[in-house]
Amino acid sequence: MTTTGRRAVLVAGAAAGAAALAGCTSAPGERPRRPSAAEREAERVARAEAALRLRSVTAARSLLERYDATLAAHPALASRLTPLRGAVAAHAKALGEGGTASPAPGGTPGAGVTAAKPAGATGPAAPAASASASGSANPVASSGAVRVAADPRAALRELAAAERTAADGHAAALLTAAPEYARLLASVAAAGAAHAYLLTEGARA
User: Fold this and answer.
1) d(Cα 188, Cα 101) in Å, to the nearest integer?
2) DSSP code of residue 112
3) 12-to-2, 15, 22, 23 alpha-carbon distances in Å
4) Angle CA(82)–CA(88)–CA(93) in degrees, nearest 5?
5) Tens digit of each residue's pLDDT (9 = 90 or more) over 21-45
6) CA distance between the termini of the chain
7) Environment class of residue 142 by beta-carbon count within 10 Å: exposed (0-12), middle (13-18) or buried (19+)?
8) How far apart, in whole angstroms, are the C-alpha atoms of residue 11 and residue 15?
9) Are strands 113-114 and 100-101 parallel, antiparallel or unpaired?
10) What is the pTM (predicted TM-score) of this model?
């Protein structure tokens, strides 16, 4: 093949490649590509998981507010409730960050919890994370809507009932959660059941 012939082949090949590339891209003004069924399903799953995480953190925050309201109404219960309150705060933090946890039944602040983000991370990275609580002993902000019984024993029963409600919610949520988050929910639910026992039957033992 002559030099001229080789040049003609190269030019033709380049032109064909350019035409193929142009066919793979959208022309200006062309309608955007519609997402595939797989992409729509992935988006649906992601939205459902985000909603589940937000519900889980909200439940943990509500329980934490009840602990703070009970401690404010009955300071004499501090030695008994503070360790449990610290565990609930750690659970709320882990649920918001989507970390892993193996909470201790008795509950000490941060016991058995390993968050997915650094402990010092701040800022509302996601709706669930922005609702998470820190593991500190500082009370969370409350709207003042939590009512606490005047009798300490009744207040403890209310707190135990709140623990059971939260634990039941976490147990139900783990059925549709992603595997890692489901394990976290199972651990937190088990810890909540243990807290409920310590607040009621355990106190009489």
Assistant:
1) 8
2) T
3) 15, 5, 15, 17
4) 125
5) 444 445 566 678 888 888 888 888 8
6) 99
7) middle
8) 6
9) antiparallel
10) 0.63
